Amino acid sequence: MADAPHDFDSSYEGTPPWDIGHPQPAFLALARSEALTGRVLDVGCGTGEHALMAAELGLDATGIDFSPRAIRLAEQKAQDRSLDARFLVADALELESSSDKYDTVLDCGLFHVFDDRDRARFVKSLTATVEPDGRYFMLCFSDQQPGDWGPRRVSRAEIQSSFTDGWRIESIEKSLIEITIDPEGACAWLAVIARS
After folding, report:
1. Where are the beta strands (DSSP E) in the chain?
2. Measuring CA to CA, which residue among 5, 23, 25 is closest to residue 188?
C-alpha cells in the first residue's frame, strides 16, 4: 500500500485495496447505533463512503483527503446518490487552520499511515477541531495482523499513549478492516476516544 501523499493520489487511478465501495462494517454498526452525532468529519475520506453514510443519516457531513483524485470521486458519488456532503482537498495534519469544529470524527485507515512525529501532529490537529465531548472513532491496522504487507501496525499501547492530554479513551476493541485484496479482511483496532 502507498505511504506517501503523492502515492495516495496515484492509487486512485485504479481501485486501491482500501476502497471497498461501501462503508466499513464497524462504522456502519456505529451509525446504526446512533453513535454519530452533530457535525461529522470523515478525515482521510478517500472516495467518501463514511461521509456519505453520515449524510444519508441527515447529518452535516464533510470529508477531507490529501488526494484531489479521491475527492473528485467522492463528489461524483455524492452527486450520483443525491446526497448533501461536502468534500475538500485538505491536510489532516493542519485541521487547526480551519475554524470548522466537529462533534464526530471518523478515521478509517489514516492514523496508521503516520510516523511518530506526524502522529503527534495529527492528534494536535484533531484536538483543535473536535468539540468538547466530541468523539473520534478510529479504525486502524492492528499489530495483531500477521505478515509484513500493508501499512504500519498499531498497538493498543500506541493508541493509548497518543491520546492523553485533552482526551479520554472510552474503548479500544478488536475489529476488522475490509480490503479488496483479502476476503478475510485485516485485523484492526476500533477505538472510541472522546475530547475532554
Report:
1. 39-43, 60-65, 85-89, 102-108, 130-141, 167-179, 182-195
2. 25
Please provide residue 180's backbone torsions phi and psi, each rounded to the nearest 5 degrees: -75, -20
Task: Give the per-residue pLDDT at 6.
Answer: 45
pLDDT of the residue at 103: 98
Neighbours of 38 (CB within 10 A): 13
**By 3-state DSSP, what share of the chain in percent is helix, strand and coil, each rounded to 5?**
35, 35, 35
Helix (H, G, I), strand (E, B) or coil at 186: strand
| Whole-prediction pTM | 0.94
* pLDDT value for 16: 85
Higher pLDDT, 120 or 8: 120
Q: Per the structure block, which three cell numbers stand in for 36? A: 454519530
Closest CA to 156 of 168, 144, 148: 144
